[in-house]
Amino acid sequence: MTEIDKIIFKNSVVMLLLFTFTNASKGLRNLTLSVYPEVIRRGQSAQLHCNYEVFDVPLYSVKWYRGIFEFYRYTPFEHPPGKTFFFNTGIKVDLSVSNASHVTLRNVDFNLNGNVSCEVTTESPSFYTATATSVLQVVEEYEWVNVMQAKRTQKMWKKKFTEEIAHAACDTVEPLQRFIEV
Question: How many Å apart are CA 101 and CA 120, to the nearest integer?
């Protein structure tokens, strides 16, 4: 490789790295979707939280889906920025408290059980797009009590198992220490 080829190669690598790292700071990152509460009683409200980070590019839109159907869209440069789409599913979006990061659903019913998604898109020229999905679970009152009891029981078993493992570890360490000391 000649000296000129080496210089061209080094400059190309530097330019590639510079381009990569300057674009890495732009865009859309850390997209997650949370449903509160985790288990929703029929007739109650639910909040869907779409958490994301947008860097050096403006937000274009946040779209919310139940399955494949869009039910809410937030577009900051339109008036009004929040819009609902009804496709005969009974989704009731509370526009007064919904925005670019969360949506409040009122009077949820069983037909909302299933996957919900938020899709975040940034403005041109890149139009970065990412989607997060979570499960919305609607139950009757008695089912809700059973689900919550099951979650508590699961936590109790986990705690008990952890304590037993710690106790077993202590039982093992003491004889080993005596063995080593002798």
Answer: 10
What is the tally of helices (H) and strands (E) in the chain? 2, 9
pLDDT for position 28: 84
Please provide the CATH number assigned to the domain covering 28-139. Answer: 2.60.40.10
Cα(92)–Cα(22) distance, rounded to whole angstroms?
42
The structure tokens listed for 115 are 């996957």
Q: Identify the pLDDT of residue 93.
A: 93
User: Which of the residues in the chain have pLDDT under 70?
Assistant: 1-2, 4-26, 87-89, 142-182
How far apart are the C-alpha atoms of 31 and 118, rounded to whole Å? 9
The DSSP output letter for 79 is S
Verdict on whether the full-model pTM lies above 0.70: no
HSE of 124, CA atoms in CB hemisphere, 13 A: 1
What is the tens place of the pLDDT at every residue in 11-20? 554 444 444 4
Asked if residues 28 and 92 have their Cβ atoms less than 8 Å apart, the reply is no
* Boundaries of every domain in the chain: 28-139, 141-182
